[in-house]
Amino acid sequence: MNPSAPSIKGLIKIHKPDQPIWPVVNWRNAPGYKLSKLFTNRINHITPLLNAFSTLLTWSGILETPHYYRTSPSLHWTLQTYTRTRTILTNMLKQKSVASQIQQEILMWYDVITRQNYFANYKDTVTQYDGLAMGAPSSCLIVKMFLQNI
Prior knowledge:
The protein is of the alpha+beta class and about 150 residues long. It has helices at about 35-45, 50-60, 75, 80-95, 100-115, 135-150; strands at about 5-10, 20-25, 120, 125. The chain contains six helices and four strands, in the order ββαααααββα. Helix 4 packs antiparallel against helix 5.
């Protein structure tokens, strides 16, 4: 596969007045990409999650605003705490009566995926200390778990 650090590029939001830049990270060549896809598929197989993000937005009235643009929740969820979501995942796996060995394996995958929070910008490697990995297939799923628990 020839893994490499996820790369970042900026896209201009032409629909916004000041035209801010939207960061986009390509995670497809990242070392953890396949593990992140496997984690997402396994959790969706064990317990399909509702789209809690759009449900939360509907409750708060955001979806009714005329200038609302649907965005990825993983990019905006910077206050996400890994330990709380790990506890939610542990409880969810216990509720579904998943075998303890599989539980430990999935939790180990979670730990590996959530620690891969970096990307390459030109020749520099930048570590993202807050939030989930931008561009990772598992980031939206982790946010859904957190929001569904709320």
